[in-house]
């Protein structure tokens, strides 16, 4: 296994309604997301780290949708939270995405970006 400091780093970003943010964060942290390693020792000196901001999301469910919020064919605008966190190692990034099954939306909105180390 590679040293923690040698593993690729990823940023996971997802959008979630405020009522579900704590359950989603608990799930991704349990999967290993949000841990920052010390560059010298590789020890995880900080855990459960993330950045959370609020904004307005919008969507219009199609005829075949089964929306958690809103109605088919009706444009919905609602407060959502954007959560960003670090995942050290591809396995952790994949596990954190899988942990988003706790998300209430039929299709959660998320992105994963591989980070460069400068």
From TrEMBL:
Protein name per the record: ATP phosphoribosyltransferase
Chain segments annotated as coiled-coil in the UniProt record: none
Species: Bombardia bombarda
Biological classification of the source: Eukaryota, Fungi, Dikarya, Ascomycota, Pezizomycotina
Residues of the signal peptide: none
Entries under InterPro entries matching the protein: DUF34/NIF3_sf, N-reg_PII/ATP_PRibTrfase_C
Gene3D superfamilies with a match to the protein in the record: 3.30.70.120
């Amino acid at each position: 296994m590679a040293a923690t400091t040698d593993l690729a780093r990823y940023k996971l970003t997802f959008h979630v309604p405020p009522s579900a943010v704590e359950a989603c964060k608990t799930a991704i942290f349990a999967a290993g997301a949000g841990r920052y390693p010390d560059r010298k020792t590789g020890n995880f000196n900080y855990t459960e780290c993330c950045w959370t901001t609020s904004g307005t999301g919008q969507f219009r469910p199609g005829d075949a949708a089964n929306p958690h919020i809103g109605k088919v064919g009706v444009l919905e605008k609602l407060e959502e939270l954007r959560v960003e966190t670090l995942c050290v190692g591809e396995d952790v990034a994949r596990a954190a995405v899988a942990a988003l099954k706790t998300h209430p939306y039929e299709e959660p909105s998320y992105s994963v970006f591989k980070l460069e180390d400068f």
